[in-house]
Design a protein that fits this description.
Blueprint (H helix, E strand, L loop, with lengths): L2 E3 L2 E4 L6 H8 L3 E4 L1 H18 L23 H12 L3 E4 L2 H15 L9 H10 L10 E3 L7 H11 L21 H5 L3 H31 L10 H5 L3 H14 L13 H4 L1 H23 L7 E3 L4 E3 L7 H30 L20 H18 L21 H33 L5 H9 L13 H14 L5
GO molecular function, one term: ammonia-lyase activity
Pfam families: Lyase_aromatic
Protein name: Histidine ammonia-lyase
């Protein structure tokens, strides 16, 4: 994490990572590096000079299809008009963690020195990001197409100007946004990246917890360790699969299991092959996000070292959209394997366990509903991934902007599946722990730590309301994730 201490993130335009973004989203303290501000000031001087020498999109011209129309009249009015005309976000307001992370990301991007804005702008954004929740801007979820979060960042700009009320209902002007700062402020997909970053961070943690939980299930069902043994690294030569095999072997070898079958059902036997792609895709998505938040995406971009400006399309978020879609598709395979293991824990006659892990009462339902809960979570995940956002496109602004990545849509979907995947893994945990208890198995090694962490789960087998069990299991997953490192 880019930080001077465990509780202060330092923004310098080069080293913002997922952990730091998660810290910012929680309202953690921020500092802006002096070196970054010097770069910003130097580039602002270059931008002012170049604007007097040549046309620059959004500074001396209109935007979109008006790119060839020179600005007339008072320049300050032009910039404010751009903010007002683009602040058309709609839908529910974004939650504070996403807003905070986005403000930190935008400040960090501006500190790369490519925008031409004055240092006051990244300072104001950073101050807002770590300030009181009631001072945050009200930013609406929808309105972007994946070619910069124009509506969201225009809302931020008007909030800085005091034209829009803040989350607490009050208005105050915290920055005189210059006309030439309006488009650079908007020329970023900071809100898309914020939602993607928080979703990626959460799924990486849950995917680790899923390894520990699956190992508990493996023990309860006496799974065959050959499926995660050395052969996996040869026959499935991919980093994620090898990592799954390594972790599972570390967790399971101390258990000295006698396999019940020569080969198990797919939920166990193909676990490296279906969970490995999720690990790989999330790692790839992390690299895309971290590269994007440490890059100048403004159009035009000003390169102080070369003394020039360039018009470009780096605001197009195809890499982000494809990274999100790939992770969502990979998630469906991992989730299906988890649902499969839950069904076998509850109903596999070869598991030597009572149906539905119920008590001896005739007709008792036990954990019957767990299959339904897991199935509904799987349906949510599949529904979000079924039509990749990156295959969509649209042509706007008289055909000048004739393609869009729809990365924002993909990021929204990422946020929607986090809770579903967490719930599915938690349901498996409840089932696995009950199965181990019913069989009287006490695992060794790190799985002993896992089972100890799960001690708060109720031992009562009688039919009752299971929602509190599942909710508690969700909270326990965070403690299980490090055991799979």
């Amino acid at each position: 994490m880019t930080a001077t201490s465990t509780d202060t993130v330092v923004l310098d335009g080069t080293r913002l990572d997922l952990d730091a973004m998660r810290h910012v989203s929680a309202g953690g303290r921020l500092e802006v590096a002096g070196d970054g501000l010097q770069v910003v000031a130097k580039t602002a001087s270059l931008a002012d000079r170049l604007a007097s020498e040549r046309p620059l999109y959004g500074r001396t011209t209109g935007v979109g299809a008006n790119r060839d129309q020179p600005v007339e009249g008072e320049p300050e009015a032009h910039g404010v008009a751009i903010l007002r005309s683009h602040a058309a976000g709609w839908g529910a307001p974004l939650p504070a963690p996403i807003v905070r992370a986005a403000l930190g990301i935008r400040a960090n991007q501006l500190l790369t020195g490519g925008s031409g804005v004055e240092p006051a702008l990244p300072l104001a954004l950073a101050e807002m990001a770590c300030g009181p929740e009631e001072d945050l801007p009200v930013v609406h979820r929808y309105g972007a197409l994946g070619t910069s979060d124009l509506t969201a960042l225009a809302e931020v700009g008007l909030t800085l100007l005091g034209e829009r009320p803040r989350a607490g209902g009050h208005r105050h002007r915290s920055l005189a946004v210059r006309s030439i700062d309006a488009l650079p402020l908007m020329s970023s997909h900071a809100f898309t990246l914020a939602e993607a970053a928080l979703g990626c961070h959460a799924l990486q943690r849950i995917s680790r917890a899923a390894l520990t939980v699956s190992a508990l299930t493996w023990v309860a069902l006496n799974g065959n360790l050959e499926a995660v043994g050395p052969a996996v690294r040869t026959v499935t030569p991919f980093p994620g699969a090898a990592e799954v095999a390594r972790v599972m072997s570390d967790l399971l070898e101390p258990q000295h299991l006698e396999p019940r079958h020569i080969q198990d059902f797919f939920g166990l036997r193909t676990w490296p092959q279906v969970h490995g792609p999720l690990i790989d895709s999330l790692d790839s998505l992390r690299r895309v996000i971290e590269s994007s938040v440490n890059t100048a995406s403004e159009n035009p971009v000003f390169l102080a070292a070369d003394g020039l400006a360039a018009h470009h399309g780096a605001f197009h978020a195809a890499y982000v959209a494809l990274g999100l879609d790939t992770a969502l598709l990979a998630l469906t395979r991992s989730a299906k394997a988890g649902q499969s293991r839950i069904s076998h824990l509850l109903t596999d006659p070869a598991a030597w366990l009572p149906r539905f892990l119920a008590d001896p009462t005739t007709g008792a339902s036990g954990l019957l509903i767990a299959e339904y809960a897991a199935g509904s979570a799987l349906a949510v995940i599949r529904g979000q991934a079924s039509t990749p956002a990156s295959v969509q496109t649209i042509s706007v602004s008289a055909g000048v902007e004739d393609d869009a990545s729809f990365s924002t849509t993909a990021a929204v979907r990422m946020g929607a599946v986090v809770d579903a995947y967490r719930h599915l893994v938690a349901v498996e945990l409840v089932c696995a722990v009950r199965a181990l208890r019913m069989r009287g198995i006490e695992p060794g090694g790190r799985l002993a730590e896992a089972l100890e962490a799960c001690r708060p789960l109720p031992t009562d087998l009688a039919d009752r309301d299971l929602a509190p069990d599942f909710a508690l299991a969700e909270e326990l997953l965070e403690a299980l994730a490090p055991l799979a490192d």
